[in-house]
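Moderator note: this is an archived Q&A kept for reference. The question asked for a predicted structure of one protein chain; the sequence and the answer are reproduced below.
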Amino acid sequence: MESAEEKQSAQSRLLIKGGKIVNDDQSFDADIYIEDGIIKQVGTNLVIPGGARTIEARGKLVMPGGIDTHTHMQLPFMGTYAVDDFYSGTKAALAGGTTMIIDFVLDQKGVSLLEAYDKWRGWADPKVCCDYGLHVGVTWWSDQVAKEMETLCAEKGINSFKMFLAYKDVFMLNDDELYESFKRIKELGALGMVHAENGHLIAEKSKEMLKMGISGPEGHEMCRPEEVEAEATQRAITIANQANCPLYIVHVMSKSSADVVSKARREGKVVFGEPIAASLGTDGTHYWNKCWRHAAGHVMGPPLRPDSSTPGYLMDLLANNDLQVTGTDNCTFSADQKALGKDDFRKIPNGVNGVEDRMSVIWEKGVHSGKMDPCRFVAVTSTNAAKIFNIYPQKGRIAVGSDADIVIWDPKESRTISAKTHHQAVDFNIFEGMVCHGVPVYVITNGHVVLDEGQLKVTQGMGRFIPTPCNAEMVYGRVAKRELARMPQKVERDPYTGPVVKIENQDEVPGVKRDENPIVGDTASFAHSRPPTRGGGRNLQDSSFALSGEQFDDKAPRRAQIRTSNPPGGKSSGLW
């Protein structure tokens, strides 16, 4: 008779048979045997214990579960809370093929980072349906913050910190504070992340829009145009580079910002770019929609761009590694919450959906359109994130010993995205009506089948917190050598033994005192520079110019009148 432990083990045994395994670097036909949440065997003709459930995956792609690098579940923001909490948000993630999220600890200025971290863990641990990690937002700077960052890295499983160049007087850091934070992050072997927009300009442009009578959602985009994002992206890269700190630009929303990231990478800077499902799947023309609710439903920061070629452009860069990884910035607010800004776009809570639809949108716009292959799809939806945040190959790969976070994908099936059928708590979907080819038919998290032929079966609190260690190889693999190569070098030379000018009055600015004009004083009288002719007349090559305005003939007597019978051009009296 089987013991309880043997029964439990048998229930956790799973065989995925006949599918095509797709990793970021290769794809091949093989079976997968899973036990106790871990991949135990990969290959053909596997010998496995009895009692395992078999999932037939012939004709399907078997890929690592997605990792959403950027979510804000139940975030307190702009006077309200995001409607998707850690339960509904992670449930929706699993429905779409994402098996891990990385959320943001983001509290107000002056709040202890450790206290904020504990608050987010308290919200998430009882609710998450899938594994999750955390980034920590640095919204103020002090010695206390610097010390707490070390504790977070050493004891709390944090390896990334986010700073804001936007949201003036709320989250924004000044450039000197940003530089200090980058230096600290570099010391800890962590990763600096930046929300790149110019907060000062946005504050001023917002006032201008309202003075012009523009209070609707279109004002949100017009007060923070592309160049405001591109300028802040360049500034963040410059400051991080001076601190030799690796940098991660969150939610790349525009072509110009993406170009800045791409150029920096080609110059050898250690910088990563994260477009999101929204910027890859739709555009900002919706802000001019006549329906206020529709327009407000798309409000996020930075905004979607009205240039309709932006999604395709970002996808091209993502496919070719100019951009590296994808998130969603999932931060959802209902229609009633968005209505807080019905008379002032500045009060519309910023945020859109995406955690459920990211995988399908990227497959549709990337793979189905022919811009990337399935291996690159795996890289940008899972593997690169696992490498950057140092949880690879536990996550982001199908291999023996990796976590059994797997999505079985049917590239031939299609679905239509709609708020009526999605699993998120929000009542609006920015991808409404989009037909996506490529659908998850099975989703497995930690060995548990949670999406089973379209049926979603999740357990609240089943997910785990996944620590993200510092000094990720993909992030810091070349930083140490770069630092040595770029170290300022002192020039060794013999000491100067020559004369040194003596300054009598220390209050005066050092230097040689000169006349007001070193050539000819402004008050100087006119002086001939050439001698007169043999007859005593003026040399015609002699200059008649003086800085004082004096002329050479000022002292000559004036003739009372000069009569000319026929002046040059003829006499004028004949015309009248």
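Archived answer notes: The longest helix spans residues 226-242.
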